[in-house]
UniProtKB/TrEMBL annotation:
SMART domains: PKS_ER (SM00829). Residues 19-336 form the Enoyl reductase (ER) domain. It comes from the Eukaryota. InterPro entries: ADH-like_C, ADH-like_N, ER, GroES-like_sf, NAD(P)-bd_dom_sf, Quin_OxRdtase/zeta-crystal_CS, Zn-ADH-like_protein. This is GroES-like zinc-binding alcohol dehydrogenase family protein. It holds the Pfam family ADH_zinc_N. It comes from Forsythia ovata.
Amino acid sequence: MEALLCRKLGDPTIPVDDSENSPLTLSKAHPIPRLNSPTAVRVRVKATSLNFANYLQILGKYQEKPPLPFIPGSDYSGTVESVGSNVTKFRIGDPVCSFAGLGSFAQFIVADETELIRVPDGCDMIAVGALPVAYGTSHVALLHRAQLRAGQVLLVLGAAGGVGVSAVQIGKICGAIVIAVARGEEKVKFLKSLGVDHVVDSSTGNITDSIKGFLKARKLKGVDVLYDPVGGKLTKESMKLLNWGANILIIGFASGEIPVVPANIALVKNWTVHGLYWGSYKIHRPAVLEDSLKELLSWVARGLITINISHTFSPSEANLAFAALKDRKAIGKVMIAFDDHKAASSKL
């Protein structure tokens, strides 16, 4: 089978197999993984999404460091290709999606049947491959942790990225007043098309002044939930906008700078700071993830969520996929698709 192997740590934007400097190599005859238990299921991967964690892992800067060589990749969609003798939930040909710590950048992956979710009929399978990590992160963060309610003000930083777009859409489904921060005219236009109540272009003006003006015009006291996958100075500025009793969701640090939340102000203003490492729920609270993904898939099937695929690449173009992620050119998700990647549309 085809599989992208990380043979050394380094910059994944270097062309695949281009030189000894490239961390990624495309194996054309990698062994197909075998069923490793009676309840194991082998899935033929249709599409797998790129997440910032994948980029950091290949660089060697992620908190989990697997031994070399390894197949990167986390969330994916595909069809059941083979099942173990005790599998009862799935049959060959069933459409499924899931996520793994490693291994989805390959044509086949093996998972226990308890880790797979059946995809409802009519869902686009390439789009569904982008669902688990980005939309799962935002769903657990906003509904399970912050318990976002209708009428509350949600501020989303990095709102045009994979998790940012998912937070915006889920916020609107919840009935929140959504404020989005993104960089560039194209991203601002896209976010407005999602029905965002107020969009701030971080490249053209003062973010806090713009948001304060919007809040004043709407007679709102401040931000109730801060969704932050960016970190750095933007976090510091955003804290000036938070209400008493606000929830701060720490999702990631795309800026490369880890912010400091002043404990004294958190105390006085009764803020709740949530650190969210979504992947660890698979170990500690797997039922939460299962329920979350089932609800998200039902929203996709009903048309409440539209997953925007910004770029789709073949495995041999993985460096271009990571470049789109690194350079923040993407609006929504970046995908690697197997077999018929050229059929993928830019927006699904």
